[in-house]
Write a structure and sequence with these properties.
The protein has 450 residues and is of the alpha/beta class. It is built from 12 helices and 12 strands. β8, α8 and β9 form a beta-alpha-beta unit.
Length: 450
């Protein structure tokens, strides 16, 4: 019997809604997954951004909780994003997104208008959006969540209600597995301006005689000369002064990044980078560095010098704070001053260590990931101090284990739907029809949210 026009229209409407629901799940959930992953991969960066938000909003009392938020926020976003993508908790997930947007929409609108925080940090350093683009993104998420709340329950999810909590638990474990090395060693993916392999150069080229104007006096009048036109003093000229001409900034080549450091107000980048092998100790927050770290620092410093590696400390702290640190830690390495943002971008950790050879960053890691015992190994050189780090391999293993876990959960949850029809008998009586109807209802109920 042919379908009526109403049946055809209803079927088309059903497939249209199904398609839009699936699209919204991928868009809304995908944005949350990407946002959570970008934050989880770099907990230090998330911590810095959360602290900036709290201080800008005047919530200084909550600044002590910034580190907890830096770990909790990506876990929440990833779990929420995965739940939406796979259709888990089809009513609760959109409601959670809407509740989150009740906070984020007015906040990002205020940021777009005032630009109080130039970079929202929604996607860490992986993708930098303007504040207006961030507001538009949150508006899209709000509309998508409203649609999913209205129609999302019409489309079954990938996992049944009985195992959805397992999917969330696996997602939480995977998030922590990604964030843990990002905090205690270095981010598994480096989206910052100074990745391994970057060549460090001075922000200004080295000065030469061509960069100076020479002032000479004759008959009571001063005249300026370049190095090519300096007059002969036997003709009555008297040298007065030498003035440096403004120089063009160093033209960066591919794979290069400038680094500006000063020593008591004097540019020290050239002196720093002329070392063939260089170990940089980074102190982004010098007053918060534990004195207990000095033992490992001193052991590392001794090992570096024994291998002909120069050691320098970089910080943005004040002269008084530097003097206190040198006095307490008995530091025998020079302490130079650099921009706070450059130090935090170079490497994560307080303190952190960066090894530079022939101007190229070979490795970087947080000091806490280096054990004092390993430094006593004579076979271990400064070059090989990062041999235990394999971020790409580690990240691939985490992703593989996570996907395999979801597959196992799915198989355990859905296998009976495939196996049961093979053993079912053809209904012969009205009683069996009733049983089949109940069985169908039970199966359908598994596709509905509790």
């Amino acid at each position: 019997m042919s379908k009526s026009l109403n049946d055809i229209a209803d079927e088309r409407q059903h497939w249209l809604i199904t398609g839009i629901v699936l699209l919204m799940r991928l868009v809304v959930g995908g944005i949350f997954v990407f946002s959570g992953f970008a934050k989880a991969i770099d907990p230090w960066g998330t911590y810095y951004k959360v602290t900036e938000y709290l201080l800008t909003l005047g919530w200084d009392a909550l600044a002590n909780q910034a580190l907890f938020i830096a770990f909790a926020l990506p876990a929440i976003e990833l779990m929420l994003g995965v739940a939406i993508v796979v259709g888990a908790y089809r009513r609760s997930s959109p409601i959670a997104v809407l509740l989150l947007m009740c906070l984020m929409l007015p906040l990002t609108l205020w940021l777009a208008v005032t630009n109080a925080v130039p970079d929202c940090g929604c996607f860490g350093d992986a993708l930098v959006l303007t504040n207006w683009a961030t507001f538009g993104k949150n508006l899209l998420l709000t509309l998508g969540a409203i649609f999913l709340l209205a129609f999302g329950r019409q489309v079954p999810g990938v996992f049944g209600p009985a195992v959805q909590w397992m999917v969330m638990a696996a997602t939480f474990v995977a998030t922590m597995a990604i964030a843990w090395p990002g905090y205690f060693t270095q981010p598994l993916i480096d989206y910052r301006p100074y990745p391994t392999g970057t060549r460090l150069v001075s922000g200004q080229p080295s000065a030469s005689d061509e960069d100076y104007i020479f002032v000479y006096e004759k008959d009571g009048q001063e005249h300026e000369f370049t190095i090519d036109s300096v007059p002969d003093e036997e003709d009555g000229w008297t040298f007065v002064d030498r003035r440096e001409m403004p120089r063009k900034p160093h033209q960066l080549q591919a794979g290069e990044r400038s680094l500006a450091v000063v020593d008591h107000g004097t540019d020290a980048a050239d002196e720093l980078l002329e070392n063939d092998s260089l170990l940089l100790l980074l102190f982004p927050d010098l007053p918060e560095v534990s004195i207990a770290t000095t033992f490992v620092i001193n052991e590392l410093t001794d090992k570096a010098r024994n291998h002909g590696v120069a050691v320098y400390g970089l910080t943005s702290a004040s002269d008084e704070q530097i003097a206190d640190w040198v006095d307490i830690s008995m530091a025998e390495y020079p302490m130079l001053v650099a921009d706070d943002s450059d130090i935090k971008m170079l490497a994560r950790g307080n303190p952190a260590v960066v090894y530079v050879k022939q101007g190229v960053i070979l490795w970087k890691r947080a000091l806490g990931s280096i054990s004092a015992e390993s430094l006593h190994d004579d076979m271990l050189t400064i070059d090989s101090l990062s041999n235990d780090m394999n971020p790409n391999g580690y990240l691939k293993r985490v992703a593989l284990y996570y996907v395999l876990t979801l597959v196992v959960i799915l198989v355990l949850n859905r296998t009976h739907l495939l196996v049961r029809p093979l053993f079912s008998r053809k209904p012969k009586t009205s009683d069996s029809d009733s049983a089949t109807s109940k069985e169908t209802q039970n199966i359908n109920s598994q596709n509905q949210e509790e």
